Every structure is written in C-alpha cells, then in structure tokens.
Model the fold of this input.
Amino acid sequence: MKLPGTHWTKPVALAVGLLAATAANADYVQLTDDLTIHYKSAGEGDTTILFVPGWGMSTEAFSKQLEHFEGSTEYTFLTYDPRGQGMSSKTEGGHFYQQHGRDLNALIKALELNNIVLGGWSFGGNEALAYVNQFGTDALSGFIMIDAAPKSTGADNTKEWIWYNHDDSDGFEAFFTMGPLLDRQGTIAGFVDWMLADKSPENMETFSQIASQTSSTTLALLNAAGAHDDFTADLSGMEGNVPLQYITRSIWDSAVQEWAAAHTPSAMISTTMASHLGFWEDPEAFNAELNKFLATLK
Done:
C-alpha cells in the first residue's frame, strides 16, 4: 500500500493550513483534472479497512473508527469524501453511484491499495457495490454492509432489505430527492434527526454541518439515481469468494436474516445498531463487531 505525497489543486491547497491543525492524518489526491479526493487514514498495517460514507456524509462520520485504529501496525483504516461531499471536489457531474464506483477504483489505484476490507455505509453501500460490479473483487479480502441495502426499492421496506417502496407510499424517496431542492434546511434537519438516537443539539449540529457541505442538486441527483440501483447479484456473487459482514439497525433484523439465508448464508450478521449512526454513537459495540469479523480473516 502506498499513501502518496499530496497532490493539490489550487483551491484545495488553500484549505491545507486549516486542516493541519485538526487532522494530521488528512490528505488529498487528485484523480482527474476536475476531481480531488480528500481522505483520512489511521494506522500503518498491511490490511486496509476502507469505509465509504453515505449520502451527503464525509470522513467525519468515521471519526471514532479512525481513533480506534490509531497506532495500529496490523491495519490501516482509511475513509474519504466522495465527489461532491465533504472536502472533495464539487464537480458539475458524476453524481450517481456507478461513477462513484469508478472514482473508488481510481482512488484504490492512486493509493496502491490492496488486501482491502471494503465497507459501505448507507448509500455508501451502493458505491462499494458499484465498485464490485465494475471492477470485481481481486483487491478485496472482506466486504461489509454498514446499515446499507443491496437493492434500493421493492414492494415493502418494512419487510424487505430495501430503502424505498416502489410506489413511494411513505414518501421516503420523494423526501430525499425533492426535499433538498424545495426545503434544504428542513430536509437536512429531518435527515439528521432520522440518523441519530441521541438528538442532542450538539449531535444535530455536527451532522447538519457535514450534510451542508453537499449541494442541494448533488443530494437530489444521488438519491434519485441511487433509488434505481440493484446490486443483489453483486453481493450474492461474493458468497464463498469474499468474507461478508452485515452490521445493521435492529429494525432490519428479520429482513437481513432472511435475505442472507437465501443469498449469502456464510455472512457474519449483527443487527444490533440502535441508530443509522450506531458506529458513531456506540463505537465500542460497533468496533467490537468489526474486530470479530477481522479476526476471521487472519
């Protein structure tokens, strides 16, 4: 694995002084003329744990995992801001998960990563599965779904491992597509409220600020495009080839268990997260489940 010297575009270079005081392990890599990716890492191990943030989120969501792997000689924990999110480039286009999968492949190649345990959180699962769909699993030694779903829509999201009902009878899909365009602040507030169990003003402000780094248009496009994703075959295809772990909220327990029994019976499953941000709100429990999975890969 290689974490290269920083390659900055001029706007990114201006932000470095601000970052240096707060994130010594933060860096940037320029992938194309219009795309510079901001990433953070901790640890120096040969196995890379690479976590992808969800819709409108950034590396800050995985701050507790960065702390957990700080100083590790066995693992390198790495996470990044997808295009349009966090401190990465705000590109004009490319706001759909097949392109995000291509961005992820470019990042993996630029940093010369291998022996990767790839994890996707929420719609970051779409991004990780879009990578598998296009580039296969040769670089992977494990794959983790973090409160993510292999398919975005179905008949009933109270019984299936999906996000949205086809008929949008609960208004969930419309809220996340049209909401950022019609009522940006209200949508972000509602989204953050939904993600958190502890809705303290401090927690609400922390994640509202993160979401506010992504433009309304980008949020709408990502959700509208993501609603059409179906990576059932890609996740199922890893059965017996790549070790799998699913860590989700308890509300998805029966749906995940049923799906896994039918498609990936070898997957290690934990459906005990109390919130969509369970890895941040209860990092000890989440990191313990992650460590159990990592121990099986040795």
Observations:
- The two ends are 18 Å apart (CA to CA).
- The beta strands are 26-32, 35-42, 47-52, 75-80, 116-121, 140-146, 153-154, 164-165, 244-249, 268-273.
- The chain has one domain: 10-296.
- Residues 97-110 form the longest helix (14 residues).
